[in-house]
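Ticket #4471: structure export looks truncated?
Reporter: QA, pipeline team
Priority: medium

Steps to reproduce: submit the single chain below to the structure queue and open the exported record.
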Amino acid sequence: MKTLQAPHLEQVSCALCGSKDSSLLFQVVDRALGVPGVFGVVQCMTCGLVYTSPRPIREDLGKCYPSESYFGLDGTRNIAPEEVPGLLSVGKQRGERLKSLLLESGYSYPLQVKSHFKSVLNFTSGLWTRFATLHPRFRIPSFTEQGRLLEIGIGCGQDLLRFAVLGWHVIGSDLSPDTCRFVRANLSLDTFQAEADQLGIPEHTFDALYLHHVFEHLPDPRRALAEFVRVLKPNGQLVMEVPNFDCAQSRRYRKDWRALEVPRHLYHYTPKTITSFLKQAGLKDVQVMPVIASPVNVFCANIPPTVASDQQHQNVWWRSFLITFPLYFVGPVFGLGDSIFVTARS
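Actual output as written to the record:
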């Protein structure tokens, strides 16, 4: 891990309404990676947006990301070689059959699964697809024939590879050149380095944009959304997931909530504020849903989100299917939805 340097800090106004009036909720230090400094989490007194201020200046944001450990390039989070055949055989393995059938019936993926239940699922797809979204496997865009999909913030490439396997023409962008090189070298997928609000590609290029826990990292959400609208084709899909500051875990643990992750998370969205941003950007058919990103965010909600702590809690009792499966569907009813799943159309 590279030596961490203290970033230069700046005070910022509310990105949603422009107000300079805010109240300090709490001050925090970086418990996860130890970036030096004391950072504030404030709430706009006009519109209620919660954001980090003071925060690192844009030029110093890179100091908050020790690349090898944070992005998983040291082998702690990347796809193991034995996992790739499983991804490439989606819809063929017995354990994947039902999931593939649901993807075909509810999301139009051409997986050609044979089943007597297909006609029933096709008829009732409007009823169960929103329910299925509560499970992480189904938080994806609907399929577009010959569609082009851009993932912004690609991590180790798991999601990008999955979309390629499912039939999308994919490309990934990331601020980290190391991440782009890793995904190109190990997964043979197209990537390019760019900031999310300066993609540098022609307008109306993509049928879908996908961001998984990335939008909260962006320093200028309004500018980023304008760029997303620019590169999406008419009626294109924006699909993303962000932490939910309005969940029970956040209210319980406050500055120790694991998904706060200051100073890397610059905005701390609620269903109300993320909806306001999307509608301001001119997006339509906006839908938001509190969901559970991972059981670790429920049972270990105050443990810093480091690779070590994630690995430490891999093999505990609540990782059992009998616990995790009902948790995904029932937990959000009781306010445990630590993330917000967002879909919208351009």
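Status: closed, not a bug. The export was complete when the record was re-opened. Leaving a note from the reviewer for reference: Residues 97-107 form the longest helix (11 residues).
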